[in-house]
Design a protein that fits this description.
The chain is α+β, with helices and mostly antiparallel strands. The protein is 19% helix and 40% strand. The two termini are 31 Å apart.
């Protein structure tokens, strides 16, 4: 019995190593993007405001999506230039880039049926569905004056950047509402020697 258990664990470990190797190979480290040749174009860029829980802070996120046949999942991309804005600017003392990014991703997948018309991208019944986000490894807040919303800050990648791939698995609760079941992050290349005001988004565990 012990031999069978050890053999099973070895098989699982080999499978994880193979999947990880293939997974890493498919990532363009400069763009933090999957290089699946069959993936469709990024479509339907959308901008929405989100209230960060327990605060008066507003996160404004701009994102787009696509179907990725290589993974059989939906990719969601937060626009790199001004994709996440936080207002008022003083909220940068309350909400870190990591908190803003992870909360935004969770909010998007839990409301994704409002924005994505692809039925294959939205879990039905008891099925679950993975969503993949490709983001840079380190971010910091950059403040600027927005004439409409007043002072706000933009989440921008730092100079020394790595790549972080988030996988969010979403299903439906007993009330048929979308809910996040699991969030995990894989580091494709680590953020090294970041600027003093940079936040590492995900780290090697």
């Amino acid at each position: 019995m012990k031999i069978m258990n050890i053999f099973s664990k070895i098989l699982i470990l080999l499978a994880v190593l193979i999947i990880t190797a293939n997974y890493t190979y498919a990532i363009d480290e400069n763009l933090c993007d999957d290089i699946c040749e069959q993936a469709g174009p990024w479509v339907s860029e959308t901008t929405i405001p989100i209230v960060y829980p327990g605060t008066d802070c507003i996160i404004t996120v701009t994102f787009s999506y696509r179907w990725n046949p290589c993974r059989n999942d939906c990719d969601i991309k937060i626009s790199e230039n001004g994709g996440i804005k936080l207002s008022p600017e003083t909220c940068t003392n309350v909400v870190s880039p990591k908190e803003a990014l992870e909360f935004t991703m969770q909010f998007l997948v839990e409301t994704i049926d409002l924005y994505i018309p692809y039925s294959t991208c939205v879990p039905q019944g008891e099925n679950t569905h993975p969503y993949i986000f490709y983001v840079k490894g380190c971010y910091h807040w950059v403040g600027y004056l927005d004439p409409i919303n007043g002072q706000s800050a933009t989440l921008e990648p730092c100079d020394n950047i790595g790549c972080c791939i988030y996988t969010l698995v979403v299903g439906r609760d007993i009330n048929n509402q979308l809910e996040m079941i699991n969030m995990s992050a894989d580091v494709n290349s680590v953020c090294t020697d970041p600027d003093y005001d940079c936040f590492t988004i995900c780290e090697e565990e």
